[in-house]
Design brief:
The protein is an alpha/beta fold. It has 14 helices and eight strands. A hairpin with a 2-residue loop joins strand 2 and strand 3 (107-114). The longest helix has 20 residues, at 32-51. The protein starts with 7 loop residues before the first helix and ends in a 7-residue tail after the last helix.
Length: 317
């Protein structure tokens, strides 16, 4: 397990607990009470730390190296039923954007999401979860296939942003994202969006328009990352914590501004601390969300979705 800076008190207590238990195993000394005391202190420390997280600390948690990624969720939720589909039928298969058909129970869904890598090699292979235009065109192709066969769409958002390279711009990055946003507003099947990690800029919006938008507790969703915001406003990354506070990018802020519909609670310590519980919670949230839309006609679905987005940003004095 890797620990972030603010998690170091937990690491120290965890090591103390393991040492105390080891002493008990290696000798005849009864350390039961000591272990119980450390365990209680560890539990209290965890609750105290994760109850009072700052926006920047939530950003750090959303990037935790042990945090589950899109394919982890899909494999855990769908199991053997998942069939990955490839390519945009135009340029190539973008490895930063994954998608395919899978089942939750007896219901089929089209899963689409950005995929990050686990180590240097896979991060390069997945382009750090930053999709090129062909990734967004691949996502749209899968959405259109889902619409054709009446299959609901689930998108899992986890990206530091769309790839900003010259070749991406040459192939129409802005147009690809704008096209996705347009087509998603009028797709005739339910769309459930789940933000599972980073939700940055147009890269997230390219698969982020839905009938309902769910956000895990320790994730963020914003027009820009705190570091980039800090470098623009202060010409330095040193003010990233103030930027994170000012951007109002946490799940609580998003819910307050009615930009998302539901916050999915994570286990104490974040999604990576109890993966199985997180996967079950997300699967249950998807099923529940689908239940709200499955009986709506295509026209009702589209009208309701349009109204949802028209109401965003309306200010009544």
């Amino acid at each position: 397990m890797e620990y972030l800076d603010f998690e170091l008190p937990i690491k120290d207590l965890q090591e103390q607990y393991e040492k105390a238990c080891q002493i008990g195993e290696d000798s005849d000394v009864d350390v039961t009470n000591t272990c119980k005391q450390i365990e209680k202190k560890l539990s209290d420390t965890k609750k105290d730390i994760y109850k009072n997280l700052t926006p920047w600390q939530r950003v750090q948690l959303s990037r935790h190296p042990n945090r589950p990624y899109t394919m982890d969720y899909i494999k855990a939720i769908c199991g053997e039923s998942f069939l990955e589909l490839h390519g945009d039928r135009s340029f190539k298969d973008d490895k930063a954007m994954v998608g395919g058909l899978g089942k939750i129970g007896d219901q089929s869904f089209m899963f689409i999401g950005q995929q990050k890598g686990y180590n240097t090699k896979t991060r390069q292979y997945r382009n750090f979860g930053m999709a090129n235009p062909e990734g967004y065109r691949k996502a749209l192709r899968l959405m259109k296939s889902a619409e054709k066969f009446g299959v609901p769409v689930v998108t899992l958002v986890d990206t530091p942003g769309a790839y900003p390279g010259l070749e991406a711009e040459e192939r129409g990055q802005g147009e690809a994202i704008a096209r996705n946003i347009l087509e998603m507003t009028r797709l005739k099947v339910p769309i459930i969006v789940v933000i599972i990690g980073e939700g940055a800029s147009g890269g997230a919006l390219g698969i982020g328009v839905g009938d309902t938008v769910l956000m895990l507790e320790n994730t963020w969703y914003s027009v820009i990352s705190p570091e980039s915001c800090s470098s623009i406003l202060w010409r330095s990354w040193e003010f990233k914590e103030q930027a994170a506070e000012a951007l109002k990018l946490t799940a609580t802020d998003m819910k307050k501004m009615k930009l998302i519909d539901q916050i999915i609670k994570e286990p104490v310590g974040g999604a990576h601390s109890n993966r199985e519980k997180t996967f079950k919670t997300v699967a249950s949230a998807i099923e529940k969300a689908y239940g709200e839309f499955k009986n709506l006609s295509p026209s009702e679905l589209v009208n309701q979705r349009m109204e949802k987005y028209f109401e965003m940003g309306v200010f009544k004095g």
